[in-house]
């Protein structure tokens, strides 16, 4: 199946600069961009985990692979100017809530200065036509009220990670209005948008303190899965869902920056409200063995995470004709089948991962989703 026609074929032969390309979401994004015929320039720290999806997919030799710190403004700017990308996608971040408690300073510097550095690096460059800044669903002031957050809701965040993402949103909006406003600066035609998505599941995530990697680690070592927040609700979605949103938004920004330069939620259907406990039970069922234990009472964990985090993606549905493709059941099945193949060594993981992108795109086409229609 040829994927180059997807997203109106906008990525074929385009140079796309991706920060955070060695991470979990970044690796899936790079693999998909390659399938779309894009020339990918990756700028990131070394892969954050062992094993890592980036190394599993052998991406290093397939793209222009640059090891660099998003906090190093000069190095970042020099590489952007050297490669002259038409599209910039900023994913680089310290992405874990618990790690933000352990090192808040590093979290703020990476997530806040990172956004400043990428936007400041491109604000005088005419060849950059679209820039997407990925933040998080945790950027909202969350009162745990089972409220589905809209893009117009107040930003906030009690923990350092959430606060850093709220700040990144404010910074993005500031740069957009100060330097990329097409009404004020008629010579500017760069689209700047932010994306709020979270609780992504899929094969190849080995980050600590995330429910899927925690489950896989326990299951492959025949230990009980230790669950801290069994009643917490999250907007679970398959990894390709927000990536399809990012790619579709990038293509829209490229052709019509004025209309699409704003903030966007990419979250699952509002019916996909499910607790951590249910997720764990489903994973054990698919894995066909294993057990779990609730450790919330025995854990003296001072790190507080939100009980409920929910997104309203109506704006993306109405204005981008974007919505999630997979049910939560399918998302879990695709995720666990990836890990089963990895640990059983039954197939080449790059081929399997490309096949998952192809099957996801095929399903989107069958559903007449705008980005997947030829």
UniProtKB/TrEMBL annotation:
It comes from the Archaea. It is an enzyme of class 4 (lyase). Keywords: Lyase. Transmembrane segments: none annotated. One of its GO terms (molecular function) is CDP-glucose 4,6-dehydratase activity. Gene3D superfamilies: NAD(P)-binding Rossmann-like Domain, UDP-galactose 4-epimerase, domain 1. Pfam families: GDP_Man_Dehyd. The keyword Lyase applies. Residues 17-335 form the NAD(P)-binding domain. Its EC number is 4.2.1.45. This is CDP-glucose 4,6-dehydratase. The lineage of its organism: Archaea, Nitrososphaerota, Marine Group I. The gene is rfbG.
